[in-house]
Amino acid sequence: MRKPILTIFYQFNPWQSTIGGIQTLIRYYIKYAPPEFEIRLVGTGADSRQALGQWHDGELEGRSLQFMPLFHLQNDNVRKQVPTSVRYTWALRGKNLASDFMHFHRLEPTLMTRHWPGAKTLFIHNDIHQQINSPAANKNAILWRRFPKVYFALERFLLGQFQQILSCNSESIDLYRRQYPDWATRIQLVRNTVDNQQFYPLTPPEQTFQRQQLAAEKGLPADTRFILFAGRLHPQKDPLLLVQAMSALKHLTPATLNVHLLIAGEGELSKPVQDEIQKLDLTSSVTLLGAVMPPDLATLHRLSSAVVLASVYEGLPLVVLEALASGTPIVTTNCGETPKFMLPGSGLVCQERTPNSIAEALLQVLKQPEQFPVQACLETAQPFSVCEVVGQIYESMYQHWERSKKIY
């Protein structure tokens, strides 16, 4: 008896160093797929010798899969003049890659899939309406901010093809159910998730020893406390505000407290961030790490005293769950789902998106670590364990598969 086939559609190559919560989430759905499923991924190619538009056998973290690159893309961390989502959508024209189950993580490619048979699921990773309409968001952050009416018309045209519309943001869920009452039962909340095999805390002696090693590698004092930002350098994440907050923190921090910001990520704001660091005389206080592979990023989470987000808008960022599962508290702006599930002691929410507000919250975490214990962080992250969340999704899919066999 053949296995049910899940085909995942997203514009990346899972074997490349690529930044983003969507990419991480897709890797989880591949890694933890039960053996009852055959997994396929339609993405982009990094090797020009790899034939486009054809299936290739591959393996990702011990899980076999079939991979089809639609076009070659050497670096998906930097936005191109022609948006990658547009190229990806165009590359699907004329194809029929329908399978038993299909997961989509962007709306645009589903222009080409409306008539494909099979059970389709759309994952919504941000509150797109807030993303487009927010006055704080950069007009260049996403293409649709220039054409909001076109996007909403496209959304209404395409959403009817999905059996499930899953969002990690409760406000987004409420909005979609009000806006599309005919499809309300298809619109459901789904938890983002974290891999506890990768993200876990160290014992205090281990953490101190390894943190001192990291400080020595960076030429910093042995007692340096690290703050971590991990994500794409994109207007949504507002890394410029983060650098400005670091400047404010420098003026607030006692001379006895050595603090260093690690920025793990790349993107279109890489050069402006470098310029801002130099302008604010922070070259000795901030290190740009570029794209960091997942195992190395997990190490940085374990060695940091805080993980910080300065975002304009969010869904439920995976970096938050990764930090908490590592026992590291969060300092975040008041956006997305994060403020709604944080337990006391797992971090602080800044009510203002200003350098001083972020700096003051960071200073509180650094000066009073006993108020933000590892256990509080772990308890907050526990419901988002990858085995629990991904397992439930696959169980639901398999039940659907069994029912459909009985019908036919």
Q: Structural class given helices, strands, pairing?
A: alpha/beta
- Widest beta sheet: strand line-up: 3-4-2-1-5-6-7-8
What does the main sheet amount to? 8 strands, mixed
Total domain units: 2
The number of helices is 14
Radius of gyration: 22 Å
CATH architecture group name of the largest domain = 3-Layer(aba) Sandwich
In percent, how much strand structure appears in the residues? 15-25%
Low-confidence stretches: none
- E-strand count: 14
Kindly describe this structure.
The protein has 408 residues and is an alpha/beta fold. It has two domains: 212 residues, Rossmann fold (3-Layer(aba) Sandwich); 181 residues, 3-Layer(aba) Sandwich (Rossmann fold), CATH 3.40.50.2000. The chain is built from 14 helices and 14 strands. It has an eight-stranded mixed beta sheet. Strand 3 and strand 4 form a beta hairpin. Helix 7 packs parallel to helix 8 and helix 7 packs across helix 12. The model has no long low-confidence stretch (mean pLDDT 91).
Task: Identify the notable features of this structure and list them briefly.
Rossmann fold, globular, alpha/beta, 408 residues, 14 strands, 2 domains, 8-stranded mixed β-sheet, 6-stranded parallel β-sheet
Describe the secondary-structure layout.
Elements: E1 5-9, H1 21-31, E2 38-45, E3 56-60, E4 63-72, H2 84-91, E5 101-104, E6 119-124, H3 128-133, H4 148-158, E7 164-167, H5 170-179, E8 187-189, H6 204-217, E9 225-230, H7 239-252, E10 259-264, H8 270-279, E11 286-290, H9 294-303, E12 306-309, H10 318-325, E13 330-333, H11 338-341, E14 347-350, H12 355-367, H13 374-381, H14 386-407
Parallel strand pairs: 1-2, 1-5, 2-4, 5-6, 6-7, 7-8, 9-10, 9-12, 10-11, 12-13, 13-14
Antiparallel strand pairs: 3-4
Helix pairs in contact: 7-8, 7-12, 10-13
